[in-house]
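Handout, tutorial session.
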Amino acid sequence: MYFPYIKIESTYYIRAVVNTKLQIGVILTALIIFVMAGMAFLSPDPNVHQSAKSNPGAKIATGKVLFSKSIRETHFSGTVLIRTLPANQAASLELIDSTGCVLDKLMFSEPLFQLRTGDLNRDGSEEIFLGIIKKTKFDPEVKKRMFIFYVDSLRLRPLFLSSRLSSEILDFAASRRKKNQIVTIEKSDTNTFTIGLYGRLDFGFIFKGYQRSYNSLTECQRDFNHEIYQ
């Protein structure tokens, strides 16, 4: 095979002749080197840990489960739980299906102290009642508060994020007797305990009154359980 004439700094012209087999061998060798270099570049470094992406369908990870409740929705039944996480003393609220896969997760940096489920508006889908200890924009004091979430398209959605109730809240749940009513255990400044009733409005809940006062938390819890389970 002949290369074209190449002009050099001379008054003459030369013609380069290259052996055909040698040329093909050089081209194949260069191609092999190029392919191997590309594979080495694209291959992951075994000494570098790749960061895992969040997978909503991943199996349950490690961490201590503080609370776990069954939950049913119109097109779903599974479990909702609170798990403590080692990083920064965080905790997660997780929605899990019957196979043990996490469908949705909410992260909290504040302590969580209670978890309940109940059908607040009697529509066949249960809401999630979460107890959290934190301060809010309108109440800067750190105290126990009640958040309510619901399940929509297999996702956790906020329904009510309580700023404060009448007194210090110790427990809460949806009433089994009346639709759209919440029952609470609250502690007064005089160290007595009361069962509070709150009715749902479009924008939140309105205080409807206390049933009675208790000197003993055990007695108060007994009547509270009767309100939410009977």
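The second record follows below. Compare its token runs with those of the first.
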Amino acid sequence: MTKRYLSIVTFCLLAVVPVRALLAGDGLYPEVPKAKARFSDTQECVEPLEDMRKNHMEYILHQRDATVHEGIRTRQHSLVECINCHVSDAADAARASSEKHFCSSCHSYASVKIDCFQCHADRPVKSSDNPSLAPSAMSHHIKHDHSAEVLTGKQLRALANGGANDE
């Protein structure tokens, strides 16, 4: 009886895999919304598609470090630029919490939690809404007070925990 039960369960599990692949379009990736623009005349995205699928997080983390730690701001791997290009600015456009959102479509499929949109906008920010976000001024969209005290990692963790101190 146990062998028969195990055989039935195994068969059911194996039957689900091809069905899920068919529902995912080409079987390898979820349905992803198309970009609204091209990076350049010769290039669709900032990097080749397969490279972006595999390494986009590395690019975003590198951009974050260059921006936050070194003050270097470029458009090529900017999260703002990704959102501006890949997410609709329509009033009823999907939010990051929806599987129809550009980022969430793949992250939900891969069971990866993203927390970018706790701080960053999940929809395009129109330059008319904030003149400092116009493409020509993109490198200056965050103002820094360099005279402010530099916080230690411990202080930053305490702030992130709502001001609670770990000591």
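Points raised in discussion: Confidence is low (pLDDT under 50) at residues 130-150.
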